[in-house]
Amino acid sequence: MTRSTNAPGAPRSARMSRLTAHLFTYAFLIGVAALMIGPFVFSVLTSIKTPKQFNTTTPLTLPDPATTENYLSLFGEKYNFVVPIVVTAQVVLVLVAGQMTSSVLAAYAFAQLNFRGRDAIFWVYIATLMIPAVVTIIPLYSMMTAWGLKNTSFTNVTGLTEPGHQSTARDMAIIASHIIRDFPEYFPYYSIREYKYNNISQANRNLLLRRDPSVDGMKTGHTEAAGYCLLATAQREFPNLGSAGAPGKRRLIAVVMHTTSSQARANEAQKLLNWGYQAFDTVRLFDDAKPIATPPIWKGKVDQVKLGASGSVFISVPKGEGGKLETKVERTDPLVAPLTKGQQVGTIKVETKGGGDARSVPLVVLETVDEAGLLGRAWDSLRLWIK
Is the N or the C terminus of the chain less surrounded, counting Cβ atoms within 10 Å? Predict the structure, then answer.
């Protein structure tokens, strides 16, 4: 008769094995659920962020404030959907492949392992699988069109020639304007004419930095396919563009592509900048925080609310056309308290006399309006009902 020396410890060892298996199972299922839900949460959070938040916050940072402008602009304008559709198809294929793989693994885990709470976790997992991949399409479109890059498709980060890697002068100018506006702390690097590293001098290839003192950027490029390219930007002082009618600086961006040499791209960009300053006027439409409209507000502590643009608004028009612009305000009606400062309640549309759209600017609340008391809200509710 033999006796196992480790028999007394067998029950404890078995319990530890089962516990380890259960912990591994829970960790695996939680990981799978996170992989399934993570991209969806990221897409939705991104779709309700402003472009500046998208560029300056982490992916899972909550929007502050949240905005629906991405969706409104998406369905209110015509976009070239070819690139977003291709990208979306790729994303959907990856999601479907991931779902199929994780579903097979999860099915095996649920069938072979018996652990506490298995049924509840099973139904939670099934619920995550029921989120259709198509739900991610609208946020994806919002992300792709947040800057209005209708004809850009990046396939690498180097800028080197590759099938499908393309953009336009207009889209390059949009990217440049966002860098200038959203990242002012980094923009001055583009105006550095020369720097030395490891005792080796590196000269800025933007020749306009040495020719024109008003030029302060921005980027050169050259490939066999694109030729010699230059995105140049300058600031020159003009009257009535500063605060209280004082002189202020006016910035223009010029984009030149497919020239034959570095001298040619500099010459053509200089011509464009000079022409832009001579042939167009920049008109101040509204001052910073100046009310444009003061409509009535319901259920508030005050009777009227101040509405306007969030900052000074300028528009560039052909020389002599500044006096022919017309402004139209489209807003929510009725306006009901509470309204917070900076909350968008409409749009300021600037049109030419011929009816063409020149620019649209968000109409926002300039001063917070709190709710009135119970009796005030009740009285206004009755008036609104009668109205």
Answer: N
Closest CA to 257 of 245, 267, 265, 249: 265
Task: Please answer whether residues 252 and 208 qualify as being in contact, where contact means their C-beta atoms are separated by less than 8 angstroms.
Answer: no
Residue with tokens 């923009």: 187
Task: Say if residues 309 and 292 touch (Cβ distance below 8 Å).
Answer: yes
CB neighbourhood size of 140 (10 A): 20
**Domain covering 169-284 in this structure, CATH number:** 3.40.710.10
Position 160 confidence tier, pLDDT thresholds 50, 70, 90: confident
pLDDT for the residue 4: 44
If DSSP codes are grouped into helix, strand and coil, which group holds residue 331?
A: strand
Let me know if 287 is exposed, middle or buried by CB neighbors in 10 A (0-12, 13-18, 19+).
Answer: middle
| Residue in the block written with tokens 């690139």 | 83
The model's confidence at residue 173, banded by pLDDT at 50, 70 and 90, is very high
What is the average pLDDT score of the chain? 79
DSSP structure class, residue 59: T
Instruction: Give bridge partners of residue 229 from the DSSP assignment.
Output: 221
Report the 10 Å Cβ neighbour count for 233. 27
Domain chopping of the chain, boundaries: 17-144, 169-284, 297-386
Query: Tokens 């600086």 map to which residue?
Result: 249
Q: Is the pLDDT of residue 254 over 70?
A: yes
DSSP conformation letters of 205-274: S-THHHH-TTEEEEEEEEETTTEEEEEEEEEEEETT-SGGG--EEEEEEEEEEEESSHHHHHHHHHHHHH
CA distance 285 to 236: 19
Structural class in CATH, domain 297-386: mainly beta
What's the pLDDT band for 56 if we cut at 50, 70, 90? low
Cα–Cα distances in angstroms (integers) from residue 188 to residues 13, 64, 115, 217, 261, in the given order: 65, 28, 60, 8, 26
Which residue shows structure tokens 């800025």?
204
Burial of 265 (0-12, 13-18, 19+ CB in 10 A): buried
Task: Give the model confidence (pLDDT) of 188-205 as tens digits.
Answer: 999 999 999 888 999 999
